[in-house]
Amino acid sequence: MKLSSAKDRILIIIPVFLLLVLHSSCHSLSRITPSQSLKDGDVLVSEGRTFALGFFTPSNNSRKRYVGIWYNISSKPTVVWVANRQNPLYDNSGVLSINTQGNIVLVYNDTHLNRNSSIWSSNVSISSSSHTFAKLQDTGNLVLIRNQGRRKVMWQSFDYPGDTRLPCMKFGVDRKTGFNRFFTSWKTPDDPGLGHVTLMIDPIGYPQLFIYKNGAPFWRGGSWTGQRWSGIPAMTPNFIYHLTLVDNANEVSLVTEVLDSSIFSRIVLDNTGHETRTIWQDKEKRWLQVGYSPTEDCDHYRWCRSNSKCDPYNGDKFECMCLPGFEPINLQEWNTRNASSGCARKKNVSTCQSGEGFVKVARVKLPDTSKARVDKSESMSY
Ligand SMILES: *[C@@H]1O[C@H](CO)[C@@H](O)[C@H](O)[C@H]1NC(C)=O
Ligand SMILES: *[C@@H]1O[C@H](CO)[C@@H](O)[C@H](O)[C@H]1NC(C)=O
Ligand SMILES: *[C@@H]1O[C@H](CO)[C@@H](O)[C@H](O)[C@H]1NC(C)=O
Ligand SMILES: *[C@@H]1O[C@H](CO)[C@@H](O)[C@H](O)[C@H]1NC(C)=O
Ligand SMILES: *[C@@H]1O[C@H](CO)[C@@H](O)[C@H](O)[C@H]1NC(C)=O
Ligand SMILES: *[C@@H]1O[C@H](CO)[C@@H](O)[C@H](O)[C@H]1NC(C)=O
Ligand SMILES: *[C@@H]1O[C@H](CO)[C@@H](O)[C@H](O)[C@H]1NC(C)=O
């Protein structure tokens, strides 16, 4: 009797011990391979430890679990990318692994079907998982690599941006395939689901930066001046980044090179239609805002409508003004500070003293260049 009860105790103690060990071990991985998965609680850390990938729960949203990449520079993670944006998990059974086809897949314990179901996948066509692994680069890019003699990137998270633009990320349109890398806001600050705000480069005519809200233009960042978007005067060339717009028959894209890699920065598009540019202040352990667009009423798309300009520094006066030679179409409405009817050419008034000519309008964004053609042999001054 005594002996068997001791055995019982041992049998009971062992499973309890194993359970404790399983739950307290948080692995820090450097790669995901076909034999090394990432469980909820584990993290995949980039070589320089700047970024980490793992499971997280957005604030005020206690039930849902997402796989994301975050800046691993303070105790409070700053999420920069989310895999299963539209399909959260509701328990801790999620596992990120490489399946037999060589894709990165997020599976969970599907209690309805009583099996593991996939909820997200990198979804590229690779036929086998041999020599395949996933790695988190120090730029915050999750890459799926096939290493057969030479390394080939099969898939990368930078090709599927979320709401955050990071240095080294390239965004824009592949003119040959139509593949477009653009940003989509979260639904709300605590729901990473696809929101109604997007930020993209419009490749038509001469390239422009746009924020769209519910599909309609909300902000025109302007055309590329050679060094910055014309609608972001603060984006002057500096010691942190070097920006290059590539515009040729193959693509329109903006590539950011980081000159000082010790500076952590990000640009976040939110569900109100604004982008916020911030830089990490390590001493104060907070993100410092260095830019915000659109800033004021004038910055909004078509705020003053046709043939007008908008001056936010116009004192108490109405910020909208008709261009030289133009007048409000509906003066009564205009006098109530309502520009919705816009301006039209004044009748029988010659603006230019003797016949045709040009009038300089200073301190304005270059007008919409979607119908413009640019002679690239000329340099563009701003
Ligand atoms: C980065 O991630 C590792 C692993 O999760 C963690 O131990 C470390 O504290 C993180 N770094 C910072 C600065 O929080
Ligand atoms: C999945 O969930 C069911 C029901 O909770 C449980 O019985 C089963 O052990 C789980 N399977 C795995 C692999 O965790
Ligand atoms: C589900 O996935 C887990 C973790 O990868 C694994 O341990 C388990 O055996 C899988 N269950 C089934 C039914 O495939
Ligand atoms: C996977 O990719 C194929 C072809 O590119 C597409 O038709 C399919 O909808 C994708 N599946 C998922 C789950 O995204
Ligand atoms: C979470 O809720 C608190 C209190 O309601 C609020 O102050 C905070 O802004 C919320 N955070 C997010 C990210 O929504
Ligand atoms: C401005 O005028 C338009 C009619 O042209 C009207 O529909 C709109 O409500 C007016 N806006 C305001 C703020 O009064
Ligand atoms: C504009 O000038 C032309 C010729 O000078 C004249 O025929 C026409 O009536 C004028 N229109 C208005 C609206 O004054």
UniProtKB/TrEMBL annotation:
UniProt signal peptide: 1-26
Keyword field: Disulfide bond, Glycoprotein, Signal
Ranges of residues in domain Bulb-type lectin: 29-157
UniProt cross-references to Gene3D superfamilies, sorted A to Z: Bulb-type lectin domain (2.90.10.10)
Top-level taxon: Eukaryota
Biological process per Gene Ontology, one example term: recognition of pollen
SUPFAM superfamilies: alpha-D-mannose-specific plant lectins
Any Pfam family: B_lectin
Keyword Nucleus: no
PANTHER family on file: BULB-TYPE LECTIN DOMAIN-CONTAINING PROTEIN (PTHR32444), G-TYPE LECTIN S-RECEPTOR-LIKE SERINE_THREONINE-PROTEIN KINASE RKS1 (PTHR32444:SF63)
Protein name in UniProt: Bulb-type lectin domain-containing protein
Source species: Acacia crassicarpa (northern wattle)
Lineage: Eukaryota, Viridiplantae, Streptophyta, Embryophyta, Tracheophyta
